[in-house]
Prior knowledge:
By secondary structure, the chain is mainly alpha-helical. 62% of the residues lie in helices and 0% in strands.
Amino acid sequence: xxxxxxxxxxxxxxxxxIFWVIIVIVFLFGPxxxxxxxxxxxxxxxxxxxxxxxxxxxxxxxxxxxxxxxxDKDKLSxxxx
Length: 81
């Protein structure tokens, strides 16, 4: 639409351009799952942590076996629920 002096009424047209630009920006950069840490969100299982501790020498093989049995027992009881 034109006003008497020839200027184009850009209000609504500009609004729709801004609206669609915002929609595209939200779609591209919107909410994403943020990975925790530098490993990209990869988390070790309790068994992997236990094996790493044994490999580093933080625990003895006897302790490892006891803790592994405890984890396996806990895993079994959780799967039965």
